[in-house]
Amino acid sequence: MHDIASLSLSDVWAGYDGPDILKGISLEVQPGRIVTVVGPNGHGKSTLLKAISGLIRVRRGDITLSGRSVLPLSPHRIAATGVVHVPQGDLLFPNMSVYENLLMGAYGERDAKQTAQRLDEVYALLPRLAERHRQIASSLSGGERRMAGIGRGLMAGGRILMLDEPSLGLAPLVIEQIYDVIGKLRAQGRTILLVEENPARVADLCDDMHLLDDGHIVWSGPPHELMGRDELLAAYLGG
Predict the structure, then answer these.
(1) At the top level of its lineage, which domain of life is listed (predicted)?
(2) How far apart (Å, rounded) are the C-alpha atoms in residues 85 and 78?
(3) Cβ-based neighbour number of residue 166 at 10 Å
(4) Which tens digits make up the pLDDT trace of 196-215?
(5) Of 46, 50, 67, 175, which is the most exposed, with the fewest CB atoms less than 10 Å away?
């Protein structure tokens, strides 16, 4: 059984060096649920995950994990609390093997037995990685690299897994495989915050959905309710 936690954002304003990108974001990710943030590109979805991870500064509001604020913490301390961020794209160590990349996900774990157990779990969930464990990361296919990125995140043993557009740039068949993996994580009771551009892709998978536009959450609710709102889909997502 994996240690799970709740994540809460309250009136969060954040950005980079210029104006705020996130403008008063409030949402909750309850234990054991998959929450998806959808919206057009360039409107703050990746920035949201970076704010939670401490990679950009939150100027107003609060972010809590199981009731405790993470804002005073540095990014590596936030990761140590169990917030695991699998960023957009591959971002693997290209000259290292699959096995070595996976071990990098467990760099903060001091218990060798725990690391070995997590590795077994990752290989069971993603058997392709077991087959490719000696292969150099730069030689993997796009789908294999994405699976290796997810596997590396799982090696951290986090309480909340944040996935930034895991389907980006992949062929339809590979996208199905990636979301099949996320479905298995759901069955394990994992808590997941997922960023995705296409709501139809995750409507049957997630519990709650938020539509983000220009740094604001403009709609929240059950995913199938959004899929029935043609005017919202057309206005914010082009159809």
Answers:
(1) Bacteria
(2) 10
(3) 20
(4) 988 988 999 999 999 999 99
(5) 67
3-state DSSP call for residue 206? Answer: coil
- Give me the DSSP letters along 50-88: HHHHTSS-EEEEEEEETTEE-TTS-HHHHHHHTEEEE-S
Query: 147 near 137, Cβ under 8 Å?
Result: no
Whole-angstrom distance, CA of residue 54 vs CA of residue 58: 8
Are 84 and 54 in contact by the 8 Å Cβ rule? The answer is no
Tens digit of each residue's pLDDT (9 = 90 or more) over 17-27: 889 999 999 99
Q: What is the CA radius of gyration of the chain?
A: 17
Positions of the chain with pLDDT under 70: 1-4, 239
With b for 16 or more beta-carbon neighbours within 10 A and e for fewer, the 115-139 pattern comes to: beebbebbbebbebbbebbeebbee
Residue pair 21/15 in contact by the 8 Å Cβ criterion: yes
The amino acid occupying position 186 is R
Residue-range domain boundaries for the chain: 1-82+191-239
The architecture (CATH level 2) of 1-82+191-239 comes to: 3-Layer(aba) Sandwich (3.40)
Helix (H), strand (E) at residue 228: none
Q: How far is CA 6 from CA 26, 32, 72, 98, 148, in A?
A: 14, 9, 18, 31, 26
Q: Edge-to-edge strands of the sheet including 83-86? A: 83-86, 160-164, 191-196, 34-38, 208-213, 216-221
Residue type at 2 in one-letter notation:
H
